[in-house]
Amino acid sequence: xxxxxxxxxxxEPAICRILDANLDRAREGLxxxxxxxxxxxxxxxxxxxxxxxxxxxxxxxxxxIRASRDTPQDPGTDLTHPKEEQRSSIEQLLQANLCRVEExxxxxxxxxxxxxxxxxxxxxxxxxxVYTLESNLLTYRRHQLLERSHLYLVTSASxxxxxxxxxxxxxxxxxxxxREKTADDTERLSYAQKLCQMCHHYGAxxxxxxxxxxxxxxxxxxxxxxxxxxxxxxxxxxxxxxxxIGRSTxxxxxxxxxxxxxxxxxxxxxxxxxxxxxxxxxAGLEYVQYAAKQATIPWFAIGGIDPSNINEVLGAGAQRxxxxxxxxxxxxxxxxxxxFLSQLTRQHTLRSIEARVTQSHV
Length: 362
Description:
Elements: H1 13-40, H2 44-60, H3 63-66, H4 90-115, H5 119-148, E1 151-154, H6 161-170, E2 175-178, H7 185-201, E3 205-209, H8 212-217, E4 222-225, H9 232-239, E5 244-249, H10 252-260, E6 265-268, H11 285-294, E7 299-302, H12 310-315, E8 321-323, H13 325-328, H14 333-360
Parallel strand pairs: 1-2, 1-8, 2-3, 3-4, 4-5, 5-6, 6-7, 7-8
């Protein structure tokens, strides 16, 4: 540490025991988060931030504090909670450990004031750094998963809604949008909550169609906006920087505007005429070709795409597609999802090979 300890020696060992336990708790939690940043997200910067905070915590974890440890007499070693015994998703694991670190730092901040004149201020600032880490971690994970997602399921009304969505998730789907235009808000909220939990259980992103308020209410990963919905800037102000915002586009002008306004991804279509967008003329494969050359953010071809025409869409330059009826009305949603993913993966592999060959001839 940079400063000397206070000359006042503590006769009450409980203070040191509290500091010892929470220094351990904070360091352990940060290590768990660091491992995911390093191996799960491949983010050197986030892993380094965790490591740096662990090292700072270690510098305060002195022999005097460690010597106070009395594990056999600690009644807290037998305390547990059923939720601590299981983790259903990476999101839940990370959130549990972020909360663990933040709570430990708060304890260190308060009790540290009694032990060392600088300790309270140091751990207060570190707690704010963990809040920032939490925000950056969630944002980074969402954007990374968006980049990796090549198949996007947009739901339609169905008596088998949950069964169909879960079957698609079991097939490898990583991106779902809940779209419901006729139900009342009570039903939408209930369905959105269940779908969001389901998606996060499978490690998938959950997007709410149109409704920023419901996206916030269910802790969705983002919202998808049509051309007649609120401006992207207002949605960003309400949602914050952590969540994703998508925008439907039907022509190059709408595409450019959505990108300029800060959309995280766009829909490109409808490629073919579809009852989902009744009355809208098909944008056609020409728009796909334009997006393949001009779009600077992830984009999904959408509108009437099914197993019979997906290769035509991919041939025009699409690398990501959004599907509605072909999955929602499928007898075997898992198999249909796997078929789409196999075609998208094959196309992505071919494009990667072509790019390497082109680069080798430059």
